[in-house]
Design goal:
The structure holds 2 protein chains of 2 kinds.
Chain A (H helix, E strand, L loop, with lengths): L4 H67 L3 H25 L5 H30 L1 H33 L5 H27 L3 H29 L4 H27 L1 H90 L14 H27 L15 H132 L4 H112 L64
Helix pairs in contact in A: 1-2, 1-3, 1-8, 2-3, 3-8, 4-5, 4-7, 5-6, 5-7, 6-7, 8-9, 10-11
Chain B lengths: L1 H7 L8 E8 L2 E6 L3 E5 L5 E2 L9 E5 L2 E6 L1 H5 L11 E9 L2 E9 L1 E8 L19 E7 L2 E6 L1 H4 L10 H5 L1
Parallel strand pairs in B: 2-11, 6-8
Antiparallel strand pairs in B: 1-2, 1-9, 3-7, 4-5, 5-6, 7-8, 10-11
C-alpha cells in the first residue's frame, strides 16, 4: 500500500494533537474546578464571613443608641438617636437578608436565633422609645429648675419685704416674727432640696422618702406661716398676703413635681435597657459570633479541598504530556530519516544531470513523493537525451531533424526549434549570397578592366595637355622677355627725357643770365648816354672851347645809343629764346611722366607674364599629379581585379563550407561552380597605341616619346611655394 | 661864369644859343644850357609836409638839398608816370639874385642843340596851352617845334601856381 509522506506526517501530528487535546481537556477541567472553588471561597464563604463580622457593628450600635435615647435631654436629640437606632436595625436586616442565602442549614438556624434576639431587642427599643417620649423625669427636673428656684427666691424677697415692714411697726414682736420667718426659710430650702432629690432619686424607696420629707417640710412651713399670720395680726397684711400667695404657688408646684416624679418613665426605660435588653443583646452577639466561627471553618475546608484537586490534576497533566512528547519524537525521527534519505538520492541524480551525465539510475523503491520525484527526474533525463540526440544531428550537419517543443514553457525546445529554423534560413541565404558574390566578382573584374583602359586613355590625354602647356609656357616666357626689355627701354627713355628736361632748364637758366647781362649792358649804355649828355651840356656851357668836346660827346652818345639798341635787340632775341626753351622744357617735363607711366605699365605686363608663367608651371604640375593619380587608378583597378578573383575563390570556399549542412533529405545537386573568372589581367597594359602603365609609381613619361613633350620640371627654384 | 652865360644869352647878342631839349608828356621843351648844371637819373624825392605844391619835395644831389620843382603843374601838362627815360635836370638859377640849385623832372632828356634865337617865333595867341609868360618862344628843330621855356618866370616862386592839373586831367 502507498504510504506517502503526507500520510505519515498526518498520522504523527494527529496522534500528537489527540494527546494535546486530552491534555488541554484535563487542564481546563481542573482549572474550572479550581475556579469554582475559588469563586465559592471568594463569593460565598469569604462574603459570609465578612457579613457576619459586619453585622456585629450595628448590633453594638443599636445598644449604644438605645442608651442614648434614654439619656437624651431634649426631644430632638432623642428623636435623632431613635432614628439612628432604627437605621441600625434596617442595616442589620439588610445584612441578614444578604447573608441568609449564603448559609448552610445549621448555620441558618443560628441566624434564626440571632434574628429572634434582635427582634426582641427591637421590641424593647420600641418600648423604651415610648417611655422616653413621655420623659416625666426630665420634665419634673425642668419644672424644678425653671420655676421652683425663682419661686423660692420670690418667697425670700417677700419675706425680706415683710421683715422690713415689721421692723417699722413697733407694735409687733419682732423677735418672734424673725424666728418664724427663719423657720419658713429653712422649710423652704428643705422643700426645694427634697423635691430635687425626688426627681433625681434612683429607686422608688428613695423617692418615697424624699417625697415624705418634702411633704413634712411643707406642712411645717405652712404651720409656721400660720404662726406668722397670728403674730402679725392686722399689721403688714399686704406684705404677708404676698408671702402667702407665693407660698400657695410653691405648694401647687411641689404637688405638680411630685406627680411627675412618681411617673418615673425614664427610669423604667433605663431599667428596660440595662436589665431586660442586655441578655438579649448578649445572646444575639453570641449567635452571630457562633455563625462567624462556623463560616470560617467552612472556608478552611474549601481551601483544603482545592489543594487536593490541584495535586490530582497536576499528576494527570504530567503523564499526558510525557506520552505526547515520546510519540512526537519517535514520529519526527522516523519521518525525517526517510525524507532525507530520499532527497539525498534526488540530489545525487540532479547533480549528475547538471554535469551532463544522463545515464544516471533513478529507480527508487519508496512509494512516496520522493519516489515520484526520482521518477520525474528519470523522465527529465530521458527528454534531455532526446534533445541531445537532436543537437548531435545538427552538429553532424543534418538540418533535416525535427525538434519539437514539449510544451509552451519549454525554452530549450523552443530555442532548438528557432535555432534549426534560423540555421536553415542562414544556410539557404548564405548559399544564395555566395552565388551573388561570385557573380559580383565577375562583374567587378570586367569593371576593373574597363577602368584600366580608361586610365590608359587618361594618361594619353594628360600627355597631350602637357605638351600643349609646354608650348604655351614658351610663348609666355618670350612675352615676358620682350616685356622686360621694353620695360628697360622705357626706363631709359624716361631717364633721358628727364636729363633733356634738365638740359633745357640749364639752357633757360643761361638765357636768363644772358638777359640779365644784356640788361647790364643796356644800363651801361644808358649811363654812357647820360654821361654823354652831361658832357654835351658841359661842352655847350664851355662855349666855343667845348665845341670839339661836344662833338666827342655827341659821338659817344651815338655809340651809346647804338650799343643800347644792339643790347635791346639781343635782349629781345634772348627773351624769345628763353620763352621757346622754357616751353621746350615744359614739354619735356610733360613727356617724362608719360614715359614713366609707359615704363610702369610695361613692368606690370612683365609681372603678369611672370605670373602667367608660374600659373602655367602649376598647371603642368597638376597635370603631372593627375598622371600619377591615373597611374594609381590603373594600379588600383588591377588590384581590384585580383581581389575580385580572390573573392570568387572565397565564395567557392564558402559554398563548400555551407555544403556541410543538409537542408533536405535528398540534397539537390549544387550549382556547378561558377565559370572560372577571366584571368585577372594583372597590370594594365596593352591598350594599343599607348604605353604600359606601370603598376607602381614609375617615371611618368619616357623620354623621346612620340606624342609627349618633356615637361621642364627642374626650374622650380625661381617660383615661390604656394 | 653864369653871369657870362647870361650875358651871352641877352637878346642883343643872341645869334645862336645852345639848348637842352627835353620832353614832357610828348611835347618837346627846350631850356638854355647855360642854366643847366647837370642831368641825373631819377632820385627818390623826400616829401615836405605842408609845403607849397610848387615845390612839394626835396632831393639829395651830391650832398646838397635841392628843391624838386614839378613844372608840369605850371605848364598845365598832364603828369606822366616815371619810366626808364625819366631824368632829373638840375638847374643853376639866380633867384632873387642868389644862385640857386633847382631840380626839375623831365620825361626824357633828348639832346643838346644849337639854335638861332632870332628865328624864335612867338606862340600863337589862340589855342596856346601853356601860359604865355613861361614861354620865350617856339623854335624849330628838324621839323619839330621846340618850346623854349623862360626859366626866370618858370621857377619864380611868387608866380601863382596853376590849379592842380592832376585833378582835372587824370
Amino acid at each position: 500500500m502507498r504510504l506517502s509522506i503526507k500520510t505519515k506526517l498526518g498520522g504523527a501530528f494527529g496522534a500528537i494533537l489527540l494527546l494535546l487535546s486530552a491534555l488541554v481537556y484535563v487542564a481546563i477541567s481542573s482549572l474550572s474546578q479550581t475556579n469554582a472553588t475559588v469563586d465559592r471561597l471568594v463569593d460565598e464563604s469569604a462574603e459570609a464571613v465578612r457579613l457576619a463580622a459586619a453585622i456585629r457593628e450595628p448590633v453594638a450600635l443599636v445598644f449604644a443608641n438605645a442608651r442614648g435615647v434614654v439619656m437624651s435631654d431634649t426631644p430632638e436629640l432623642l428623636e435623632r438617636r431613635y432614628e439612628a437606632s432604627e437605621e441600625n436595625f434596617a442595616e442589620i436586616r439588610a445584612l441578614e437578608a444578604e447573608l441568609e442565602p449564603l448559609l448552610a442549614p445549621q448555620e441558618a438556624e443560628t441566624l434564626a436565633r440571632f434574628r429572634e434576639s434582635w427582634e426582641t431587642l427591637e421590641a424593647h427599643l420600641e418600648e423604651v422609645h415610648t417611655l422616653t417620649q413621655d420623659n416625666s423625669n426630665v420634665r419634673a427636673r425642668n419644672l424644678a429648675f425653671e420655676r421652683l428656684t425663682p419661686l423660692a427666691e420670690n418667697i425670700g424677697a417677700a419675706i425680706d419685704a415683710l421683715d422690713a415692714r415689721v421692723a417699722s411697726i413697733p407694735a409687733i414682736d419682732r423677735e418672734a416674727v424673725l424666728q418664724i420667718e427663719l423657720k419658713v426659710m429653712d422649710d423652704l430650702r428643705d422643700i426645694e432640696t427634697m423635691l430635687l432629690s425626688t426627681i433625681l432619686a434612683q429607686t422608688d424607696e428613695d423617692m418615697e422618702r424624699f417625697m415624705a420629707e418634702a411633704a413634712t417640710s411643707l406642712a411645717e412651713a405652712e404651720t409656721a406661716l400660720d404662726d406668722l399670720q397670728a403674730a402679725l395680726g392686722s399689721y403688714a397684711s399686704r406684705e404677708l398676703e404676698a408671702v402667702l400667695s407665693a407660698w400657695g404657688e410653691l405648694a401647687a408646684l411641689s404637688g405638680e413635681i411630685k406627680t411627675l416624679a412618681t411617673e418615673r418613665t425614664n427610669l423604667i426605660a433605663w431599667d428596660i435597657v440595662e436589665t431586660t435588653s442586655q441578655p438579649v443583646r448578649l445572646e444575639a452577639t453570641a449567635a452571630i459570633n457562633e455563625l462567624s466561627d462556623s463560616l470560617k471553618a467552612d472556608m478552611a475546608a474549601a481551601k483544603a479541598a482545592a489543594a487536593a484537586a490541584y495535586g490530582t490534576s497536576r499528576s494527570v497533566l504530567i503523564g499526558v504530556a510525557v506520552t505526547a512528547l515520546l510519540v512526537g519524537l519517535s514520529a519526527a525521527a522516523w519521518i525525517s530519516l526517510s525524507i532525507s534519505r530520499g532527497l539525498g538520492r534526488a540530489v545525487d541524480v540532479a547533480r549528475k544531470v547538471s554535469i551532463g551525465d544522463l545515464d544516471v539510475d533513478t529507480r527508487h523503491s519508496a512509494r512516496d513523493e520522493i519516489g515520484d520525484l526520482l521518477r520525474a527526474m528519470g523522465e527529465m533525463t530521458g527528454t534531455l537525451g532526446k534533445m541531445s540526440a537532436v543537437a548531435e544531428a545538427i552538429s553532424r550537419g543534418d538540418l533535416t531533424v525535427e525538434a519539437r517543443r514539449r510544451s509552451d514553457a519549454d525554452a530549450l525546445g523552443i530555442a532548438f526549434e528557432r535555432m534549426l529554423r534560423k540555421l536553415r534560413e542562414v544556410v539557404r541565404d548564405a548559399d544564395r549570397s555566395s552565388d551573388g558574390v561570385a557573380e559580383g566578382a565577375n562583374a567587378m573584374s570586367a569593371a576593373a578592366e574597363q577602368l584600366s583602359q580608361g586610365a590608359t586613355e587618361q594618361a594619353a590625354a594628360a600627355q597631350q595637355a602637357s605638351s600643349a602647356m609646354e608650348e604655351m609656357v614658351a610663348n609666355i616666357r618670350q612675352s615676358a622677355d620682350n616685356a622686360s626689355q621694353t620695360e628697360k627701354i622705357a626706363t631709359q627713355s624716361a631717364e633721358e627725357a628727364t636729363k633733356s628736361g634738365q638740359a633745357v632748364a640749364d639752357a633757360v637758366k643761361a638765357m636768363r643770365t644772358i638777359a640779365e647781362k644784356i640788361n647790364i649792358i643796356q644800363e651801361i649804355a644808358r649811363q654812357t648816354d647820360l654821361l654823354a649828355l652831361n658832357a654835351a651840356v658841359e661842352a655847350a656851357r664851355a662855349g666855343q672851347h667845348g665845341k670839339g668836346f661836344a662833338v666827342v660827346a655827341s659821338e659817344v652818345r651815338k655809340l651809346a645809343e647804338r650799343s643800347q639798341q644792339a643790347a635791346q635787340e639781343i635782349g629781345e632775341l634772348s627773351s624769345t629764346t628763353l620763352e621757346v626753351s622754357t616751353r621746350a622744357g615744359e614739354m619735356l617735363q610733360a613727356l617724362v611722366p608719360s614715359i614713366r607711366r609707359t615704363s610702369d605699365l610695361v613692368e606690370e605686363i612683365s609681372a603678369a607674364t611672370q605670373e602667367q608663367n608660374t600659373g602655367a608651371e602649376q598647371i603642368n604640375q597638376a597635370i603631372r599629379e593627375l598622371d600619377a593619380v591615373i597611374q594609381q587608378n590603373a594600379a588600383s583597378s588591377t588590384e581590384a581585379a585580383s581581389v575580385s578573383a580572390e573573392l570568387a575563390t572565397q565564395s567557392d570556399e564558402l559554398r563548400k563550407v555551407i555544403g556541410f549542412f543538409h537542408l533536405e533529405a535528398a540534397t539537390k545537386p549544387r550549382n556547378s561552380p561558377q565559370a572560372p573568372l577571366p584571368a585577372s589581367s594583372g597590370p594594365i597594359d596593352a591598350v594599343p597605341g599607348t604605353r604600359t602603365i606601370p603598376k607602381a609609381k614609375s617615371a611618368l613619361i619616357p623620354n623621346g616619346h612620340a606624342d609627349g613633350v618633356e615637361l621642364d620640371l627642374g626650374s622650380d627654384a625661381e617660383f615661390e611655394a604656394y | 661864369m653864369n653871369g657870362g652865360a647870361r650875358i651871352a644869352g641877352t637878346p642883343a647878342s643872341r645869334s645862336s644859343e645852345m639848348l637842352l631839349l627835353f620832353s614832357l608828356s610828348g611835347e618837346t621843351f627846350g631850356i638854355t644850357v647855360s642854366n643847366v648844371s647837370e642831368v641825373l637819373d631819377p632820385i627818390p624825392p623826400t616829401e615836405i609836409p605842408n609845403a607849397d605844391p610848387f615845390a612839394a619835395a626835396v632831393v639829395n644831389v651830391r650832398g646838397a638839398i635841392v628843391p624838386l620843382i614839378d613844372i608840369r603843374r605850371r605848364l598845365r601838362i598832364r603828369v606822366t608816370t616815371e619810366d626808364g627815360d625819366t631824368r632829373i635836370v638840375v638847374l643853376d638859377l639866380p633867384i632873387g639874385g642868389v644862385p640857386t640849385k633847382i631840380a626839375m623832372i623831365a620825361d626824357a632828356v633828348t639832346k643838346v642843340i644849337e639854335t638861332d634865337l632870332g628865328a624864335l617865333e612867338p606862340i600863337p595867341e589862340l589855342g596856346a596851352r601853356w601860359p604865355k609868360k613861361f614861354v620865350e618862344g617856339v623854335a624849330r628843330h628838324d621839323g619839330d617845334l621846340v618850346v623854349l621855356l623862360d626859366p626866370q618866370t618858370l621857377f619864380d616862386p611868387d608866380e601863382p601856381t596853376a590849379p592842380d592839373m592832376q585833378e582835372t586831367t587824370t
